[in-house]
Design brief:
alpha/beta
Length: about 240
């Protein structure tokens, strides 16, 4: 089985849609995706994900199933008197805590307890497990029981924040590492495939992360969204 996770195109956050650049990106993405036959397509309920998916859906004639938990990750915390996303923390803060590097302990950090992070985290990880069980793979600690081994391919249109949570559950690693040390740029494609080396026991392996070959093939420069300045003196996002 393969899971293809696609981040939405270059976003227009103000209108929950995509920019003109994002439209070009989504069209190139659709040209790539149409070459693969997918057994099921799932999409976030947010406008920018649905708009990104629409170009592929129109070309393929398929319909996407909307999964509410594929919404951009909603977990928030109180930080310096303001309510803010839990997953955008400066490195000097979060790297001090060993707990943030642990799948089992990252939610125990005091900051993560002062908001709604745990509720939304469990909504996503439970949704992830239910989806994989629907397609034949049941989470069993760090393995999956291959109750219906298959070669299906499923496609998810969603967001970087929630994609990181999905991967954290599948690989049983802290999402903080994925949120901060990995970047899935707009319309990037991440592919996971099962490995069943012993009968009935499977894991998922990442065979591509954040792939943008469709943009390079189409001469489209990748968006900077989700990246930060390479040097503090850069006039880019801090």
């Amino acid at each position: 089985m393969e899971i293809w996770i696609v981040r939405h195109a270059d976003p227009d956050y103000e209108h929950d849609s995509i920019t003109k650049k994002g439209e070009r990106e989504a069209k190139l993405l659709a040209e790539r995706l149409i070459k693969t036959e997918f057994d099921a397509v799932y999409c976030s309920p947010m406008g920018r994900a649905k708009k990104t998916a629409s170009y592929y859906l129109e070309k393929s004639g398929k319909e996407a199933i909307i999964l509410p938990w594929l919404h951009e990750f909603k977990g928030t915390v109180k930080w310096k008197g303001e309510t803010t996303q839990c997953w955008d923390r400066v490195p000097d803060y979060w790297t001090r805590f060993n707990e943030y590097y642990s799948y089992d302990n990252w939610l125990d950090v005091e900051l993560m307890k002062n908001g709604n992070v745990k509720d939304y985290y469990y909504e996503v990880i439970n949704g992830t497990d239910a989806l994989l069980e629907k397609h034949g793979y049941v989470h069993n600690e760090r393995l999956f029981r291959a109750e219906r081994p298959n070669a299906e391919k499923i496609l998810l249109f969603c967001h970087f924040g929630v994609e990181s949570v999905i991967l954290s559950q599948i690989f049983k690693i802290s999402p903080m590492i994925l949120w901060h040390n990995f970047v899935a740029l707009p319309t990037s494609v991440t592919r996971l495939a099962t490995a069943e080396r012993e009968q009935g026991k499977a894991i998922f392996t990442c065979i591509q992360y954040g792939d943008l070959s469709h943009l390079y093939a189409g001469g489209e420069e990748p968006s900077f969204q989700a990246r930060f300045c390479e040097r503090f003196t850069d006039n880019t996002r801090h």
